[in-house]
Amino acid sequence: MSETFDAVDRRLVLATQGGLPLVPRPYHQVAEQVGIPADEVMARLARMLAGGVIRRIGAVPNHYAIGYTANGMSVWDVPDECIDELGRQVGALAFVTHCYHRPRRLPDWPYNLFAMVHGGSRAEVMTKVAEIAAIIGSDCRAHDVLFSTRILKKTGLRIGA
Amino acid sequence: MHEPTQIDALDRAIIDGLQGGFPICERPYAQVAAGLGMSEAELLERLQRMLDARLLTRFGPMFQVERMGGAFVLAALRVPEGDWQRVLEIVNALPEVAHNYRRESERGGGLNMWFVLATESAAGIDAAIHRIEAASGLPVFPFPKLQEYFVEMKLAVRA
After folding, report:
1. Residue of B nearest to A92 (CA)
2. Is residue B155, in this structure, part of any structural domain at all?
3. Considering its fold, how many domains does chain A have in total?
4. What is the widest separation between alpha-carbon atoms in chain A?
5. Same domain, B83 and B116
6. Which of A18, A22, A120, B3 has the least CB density, counted as fewest CB within 10 Å?
7. Cα–Cα distance between B39 and A149 in angstroms, integer?
């Protein structure tokens, strides 16, 4: 994908990473800013969306403000040989928003499977974490839940001009 | 942490309906507004109000920097309580830090500052980590993803 990402695409990222203009013809405004025709802006954005450079276009809610006041990063130490199967099963749960295999950092950090769970309360999150524990079963050697207590920064990607 | 802000049924419909799939066409807001039974002007006004009120943190394309040849890496620090503000300022000052959350285990004493580094090149991640380590005097624990099983950060409004 990166070989098809060119300098004009990069200018489009710079022009839109802070958000789309809230005007009736937002892509036309971006086009003026970048100095290319609006049709080309739309074609390039559509290509980036199809190719995965853009994950999606839309609203990013502040999840605290929309009622998800508890967000727990559940972390699990599972055997490497079964992590892909377990990761797929945990990732398929409706309440898991992110699920990744990440490296352990021994001795400080024994966990290799990360699953983010959002809920309206810590108790609700812990109920969901118990569902994950049931799936992992005896493959779970240790686990923990880290609740976020403060958003310290949430700007998203900011590449330099 | 704050109380959920007041939102009405139309705000809810906008947030729930617009977490993805915003059209790429000449008048995208008009198209979305028609589907929600409101005018283009009202949709624009409500989006602006929700951004101003921080109900929305952003409206627009979400880029995957890895697909542009860059990198996106979760990392963490164990920050002593008395040193919190100093380290927070160091970390947040870097433009490469896209998100930063305080996270704590009930067991306490562990990694407590979790941030995401987004850079245009893989080398940029190492450079940012070295800068944080040099300025803070603390070791950074990077957690690059080895495998992604699921990512879908779309949450229905429940406030």
Report:
1. B150
2. no
3. 2
4. 59
5. yes
6. B3
7. 38
Residues in chain B with CB shorter than 8 Å from the CB of A6 are none
Please name the helix (run of DSSP H) or strand (run of DSSP E) that holds residue B150, with its range, or none. Answer: strand B147-151
Q: Are B38 and B89 part of one and the same domain?
A: no
pLDDT for B5 equals: 57
Together in a domain, A20 and A89: no
Q: In this predicted model, what pLDDT tens digit does every residue of B81-93 receive, in sequence order? A: 999 999 999 999 9
Reported ipTM: the value is: 0.82
- Give tens-digit pLDDT for B12-65: 999 988 988 999 999 999 999 999 999 999 999 999 999 999 899 899 999 988
Range of the domain at B15: 9-52
Q: Do A17 and A78 fall within a single domain? A: no
Q: Specify whether B73 is located in the same domain as B138.
A: yes
CB-CB neighbors (< 8 A) of A68 in chain B: 155, 158
Judged by CB atoms closer than 8 Å, whether chains meet at B101 and A100 is answered as no
Closest by Cα among A66, A67, A64, A75 to A129? A75
Kindly determine whether residue B24 and residue A103, on different chains, have CB atoms separated by under 8 Å.
no
My answer on whether A83 and A122 are in the same domain is yes
| Mutate: best of B25, B50, B58, B107, partner A, most A CBs <10 A | B58
CB pairs under 8 A between A and B: 269
Measured in whole angstroms, the distance separating CA B120 from the mean position of its chain's CA atoms is: 17
% of chain B surpassing 70 pLDDT: 93
Q: Which member of B7, B141, B146 has the closest CB to residue A109?
A: B141
Q: Structural domain of residue A41, as residue ranges?
A: 2-51
Q: What is the pTM of this model?
A: 0.81
- Does B87 map to a domain? yes
* Mutation site for A-interface testing, chosen from B55, B149, B151 by largest number of A Cβ within 10 Å: B149
